[in-house]
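note to self — DONT lose this again. spent like an hour looking for the file last time. sequence + predicted structure for the chain T wanted, 274 res
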Amino acid sequence: MALRRPTTLLTSSTPLFSTRTPFVCASCTLRHARSATTDATDSPVESTLSPAQAARVPKPTPFVPDPQTFLTLIGRSLSSHANKFSSWEELFTLSSAQMKAKGLDPPRTRKYLLRWREKFRRGDYGIGGDLKYVKDGIAELRVVDVPSLAAKTNAGTSQTQGVAQEEAFASTSHTPGFTKLVLNVPIGMKTYKLEQGQSTKDLKKPQGVTLKEGHIIAGSYVMPMKGSDGSAAMIKVTEGMWEDRRGHKVHGGERRRAETLHKMRVAESRKARR
């Protein structure tokens, strides 16, 4: 009699093949990771900026509209490297290594540029950086009579008009209720017109500019206009306006000062003997 074939297959609780993960050498893993990183680096990079990079690019200002002007202002002959930066975004996103690859040397020059980039991001400008009305790198300043705000007492209430005479003597314009303020005005305008939604509280004098003798505009790189008696002036983009001046050694510096002074005294005594 023939044997019958079983109707059910045998099952086992243990799998026929092992499910353990194969052993991988640590050095092999590191080597594969390095090759993957190299491949990713060699791949072409998109020209568009990432959101993180775009957030770190500050907006140009009317006084600093392009890389050429920025490099001119910070000085140290960096304006000669303006052709190495094709755009404003590239100026504020290139790393020190990328600048070196473009031929921007020596290292202290790149470090100086990186430091000024961070200052500009924070809004730490030099003179003229906060000017709004600029044309062809020239801004105009004028002394304008501005209504003075009512002074506040300790109780927080406005002072009465009983001190109007005292305010008149305190005003630099000798006009009751008015004071003089240096403002950046559009080119050719002899006064300042408030913009829509703007009040006298929003008016501020440009950074680095002062008012002397009640009518004279003073400050670094401030050029008085002819026939204005000092009440009108111009500020023009100039090479090295914002430059951080480097010091120079006196008598050989701190380490060699005593030696240098001794040699100078010896030389003077020899001349005196002759």
